[in-house]
Amino acid sequence: MQLKTEYEKVEPYITKDGSTIRELMHPSVHGNSEQSLAEATVPAGGKTLLHKHAAAEEIYHITEGRGIITLGGREFEVRTGDAVCIQPGTPHRIRNTGENDLKILCCCAPAYSHEDTELME
């Protein structure tokens, strides 16, 4: 198992919800088994597409910036230092309301997969 990830060596990609992702730890790359950890970046004025995951529970930890998150029928502000739990099956998206990038650590259990992501819009 690869025990360390060097941030600058991780190639970012655009995920199904439209955010830019760096997989910091994922079973398909690192050999861990039960979860994944990624950094998502949403540019100023940007937002992710409304989506849900059938199996994965997610925890978002805001490391930079601020925004508004939608969870089901609720919306609330988030900012640096906040953490949000997203239960499986809950439609969600996040919108960057700041002037700089919104950066989020995303932990998924089980690990993130495109197949477990259903776009709602």
How much is the average pLDDT? 94
Binned strand content: over 45%
Architecture in CATH?
Answer: Sandwich
Q: Tell me which oligomeric state these chains represent.
A: single chain
Name the CATH class.
Answer: Mainly Beta
Can you tell me the overall shape?
A: globular
- Total separate domains: 1
- Order of strands, widest sheet: 1-2-3-10-5-8
Number of strands: 11
Question: What is the CATH topology?
Answer: Jelly Rolls
CATH homology superfamily name: Jelly Rolls
Question: What's the order of the H and E elements?
Answer: EEHEEEEEEEEE
Could you describe the largest sheet, including whether it forms a barrel?
6 strands, antiparallel
End-to-end gap: 37 Å
* Number of helices, where a helix is a run of at least 4 consecutive DSSP H or I residues: 1
What portion of residues is helical?
A: under 10%
Radius of gyration: 14 Å
Structural classification: mainly beta
Uncertain segments: none
Describe the protein:
The chain has 1 helix and 11 strands, in the order ββαβββββββββ. Strands 1-2-3-10-5-8 form a 6-stranded antiparallel β-sheet. It has one domain (13-119): Sandwich (Jelly Rolls), CATH 2.60.120. The longest helix has 4 residues, at 27-30. It has one helix spanning 27-30; strands spanning 13-14, 20-25, 36-42, 51-53, 57-64, 66-71, 74-79, 83-86, 92-96, 102-109, 117-119. The protein is mainly β and 121 residues long.
